[in-house]
Amino acid sequence: MLKNLKQSLILSLITIILFGFLYPVLVYAFGQLMPKKSSGSPVTVNGRITGFENIGQSFTDDKYFNNRPSAVNYNAASTGGSNKGPANPEYLSEVKARIDTFLVHNPGINKKDIPSELVTASGSGIDPDISPDAAYIQIRRISGIRNISADKLKELVSQNTEKKYLGFLGIDRINVLKLNIALDQLK
Question: Helices (H) and strands (E) in the chain — how many of each?
Fold first, then answer.
């Protein structure tokens, strides 16, 4: 029995050292090799951090492009989806409320034309990107509020679209924070 206890203690000590110390240090060191990515990629305007490139945030003012809804209220400390399936009545109610809100703020848009990402949260809950379609559908609202031509806004969306990796991997996407910063800088 003493032999088993000794082996268990040694195994526990090795596990604590490996997974309680060495693994976290290794992950931290790896993150330091890519400091921009490991810090959330801060976005600065006039020397002040206004947000993070890799962390979505809420834009509720109609003069800005809206991003995806968040199941965690854009809290990067508690990322995650809602874990509610498409047949869940509570989830369906949330999505319906989001659709109704979108239609109130974007009159003249047909319900069927709303990109799903504007009314459904991402798996992480903090997705910072939307598709070009999700940006284009908001142009009419922003154009009217800011008194900027729709063509100028379409050009801005096009300039801020990040293309697929290697031309075929992933999807075209737009970082909403960067797009809204560029929108504020339009003359």
Answer: 8, 5
